[in-house]
Write a structure and sequence with these properties.
Strand order of the largest sheet: 3-10-8-5
Number of strands: 10
Oligomer: single chain
Number of helices: 2
Strand content: 25-35%
Shape: elongated
Radius of gyration: 33 Å
Largest sheet: 4 strands, antiparallel
Order of helices and strands: HEEHEEEEEEEE
Helix content: 10-25%
């Protein structure tokens, strides 16, 4: 086996995804080549542990948010629509002030369009459902402050 042939085998190995190759020729010549450039030590990231979070504080903040905000929940199972028609603007959006009885959305159930009205006066601070999403009975739809 000549040097150019060996060099070609080495070059082919470098271009391939193989890590190692061993060849035995009929004349008894044996070649074993390892592709060391492909074997790279992998740095494993250390686990991140947050110990500064006080679970009690998180629970208190959640309770405070629930006390401050009122949740409008779905009164039925159906499809949530935020606007009266596909080309119309939404009934409400984040930041809008609503009054009790004002239409917030439509829920389609069995081909009937049911307008869902606000039970509270206040400001919409979060819309919890996407337009066209299926909702279950009791699913939170809006957060009003």
């Amino acid at each position: 086996m000549e040097y150019p042939e060996i060099k070609k085998i080495i070059n082919d190995l470098e271009k391939s995804s193989l890590a190692e190759i061993a060849i035995e020729f009929p004349d008894g010549t044996k070649i074993s080549v390892k592709n060391q450039s492909e074997v790279k030590p992998m740095r494993v990231p250390e686990a991140v542990v947050y110990t500064d979070i006080n679970k009690e504080e998180v629970k208190i903040e959640k309770q405070e948010l629930e006390e401050i905000c009122k949740i409008v929940k779905s009164p039925m199972v159906g499809t949530f629509y935020s606007k009266p028609s596909p080309d119309a603007s939404a009934f409400v959006e984040v930041g809008k002030i609503v009054k009790t009885g004002e239409t917030l959305c439509i829920i389609e159930a069995m081909k009937l369009m049911n307008e869902i009205e606000s039970e509270y006066d206040g400001e919409i601070i979060e819309v919890l459902v996407k337009d066209g999403e299926m909702v279950d009975y009791g699913k939170p739809l809006f957060r009003i402050k």
